[in-house]
Write a structure and sequence with these properties.
single chain, 60 residues, mainly alpha, 85% helix
């Protein structure tokens, strides 16, 4: 496989993981979990979870 092909596959995996993390965060927020707890579980910055929370509730 070419280097470009590997890079594209890695990028796709990253996007898939981010979508899965966003879905998990959304479900945990609906459950009433705090952004801090979600960040700890997903091993992401709290700021990321808070930004996603704003996006999620802006859509609803």
């Amino acid at each position: 496989m070419t280097q470009v092909g590997k890079m594209l596959m890695d990028e796709g995996r990253q996007e898939g993981k981010q979508e899965a993390d966003r879905k998990t965060a959304r479900n945990m927020l609906k459950r009433g979990d705090s952004p801090e707890a979600i960040a700890e579980v997903l091993e992401l910055p709290v700021e990321t979870i808070k930004a996603w929370k704003q996006e999620i509730y802006a859509i609803v």
